[in-house]
Structure formats: C-alpha cells, structure tokens
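Tip: read the tokens left to right.
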C-alpha cells in the first residue's frame, strides 16, 4: 500500500477562518436536506473549505486524522465570539490596514443604519454589513479612534470577505443582544406608560 503524504492546513482558532469560507460553508449546508446535515459530504466540504483539502485528498486521510481535523474545525466554532473593536488585515499588495468598529452608535448616519439593517441578518451579504460596521481607522489610539466616513458598502465589501469570521460573528451577536435589550426596554417603557395612563 502506497503512503500518501498530505499537507493539511488546519485552523487553530476561529480568527484563522475567513468570512468568505464561512459563507461558502453556509451556502453548501443550506442546500443540503435537513435530514442529511450530518452526512459525510458536508464533512468533506468542511475539510475542503476550511483546510484546503480536495475531496480526493480527504478520502485518502486516515479515519483518525479525518475525525481529528473535523473536531479541530468544530472546536474553532465553539469559541466565544465577543465584539472585536479593532482588527488588522494585510492585502495581497502587502498593505496592512487597521479597521475599527463604529465608535459611537448614537452618531450612526441614516445611510449606515439602513444598509446595516438590510445586510446584518443575511449571511450571503454579511460582508456588506461588515463594510458598514468596520472601516479604516484614520485617527486616534486604543478605544478612542475615528474611522473613515461612510460612503456606501462598495468600497470595502470585497475586502471584508477576507476578514476573520470571529469578527463578523462577534458583531452579529453584539447587534442581536443590543436589539434584544432595546426591545425589552421599549416593552417595559410601554408597560410603564400604560400603567400611568390606566390609573
């Protein structure tokens, strides 16, 4: 029996996985019947998307390695995803850019709000939401910084496809929690108002 040597690039943490890889995986998973979600094809696609292994190479992996690699990828997605305020990315041209989260949500423009609301729940377009939430830092230090003015998603949406997926997941969770808190606050406020007028 011939020994097959493969070079496998296994992500060690969620930040090593790019947003476009996660989008591709979600697209594959979405197109598989619900009862087939645990099937081997989806596992093979996970190895192809997240580790760069062809389907043929995946079939040549020893079973223990196949399961170990899948477990490692799964462990990455089990990580806690907090909001990331700042992160850097280096482009293919070697230029490194530091991106910052919208520093003051109270000063968000109407255009930012409309675009963010359109894209934040759609994983096919989450890179566009990322282009709203994160833009290059143009001044400041640590938690006090200023980001580039918003001019629509066109400028940064393709760049954001290469952002670390933990940044996108952290931002989505942040806005989900914020929305939940706001709706709870609004409901409590309405109930209090009703009790005042009902007296």
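Filled-in amino acids:
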């Amino acid at each position: 029996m011939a020994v097959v040597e493969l070079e496998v690039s296994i992500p060690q943490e969620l930040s090593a996985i790019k947003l476009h890889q996660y989008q591709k995986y979600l697209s594959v998973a979405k197109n598989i019947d619900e009862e087939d979600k645990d099937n081997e094809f989806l596992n093979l696609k996970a190895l192809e998307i997240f580790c760069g292994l062809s389907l043929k190479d995946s079939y040549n992996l020893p079973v223990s390695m196949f399961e170990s690699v899948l477990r490692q990828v799964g462990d990455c997605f089990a990580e806690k995803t907090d909001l990331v305020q700042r992160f850097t990315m280096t482009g293919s041209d070697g230029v490194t850019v530091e991106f910052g989260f919208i520093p003051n949500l109270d000063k968000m423009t109407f255009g930012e709000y409309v675009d963010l609301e359109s894209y934040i729940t759609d994983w096919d377009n989450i890179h566009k939401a990322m282009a709203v939430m994160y833009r290059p830092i143009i001044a400041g230090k640590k938690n006090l910084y200023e980001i580039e003015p918003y001019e629509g998603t066109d400028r940064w949406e393709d760049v954001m496809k290469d952002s670390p997926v933990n940044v996108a997941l952290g931002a989505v969770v942040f806005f989900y929690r914020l929305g939940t808190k706001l709706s709870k606050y609004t409901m409590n406020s309405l109930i209090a108002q009703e009790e005042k007028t009902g007296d």
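The radius of gyration is 21 Å. The chain is about 50% helix and 10% strand.
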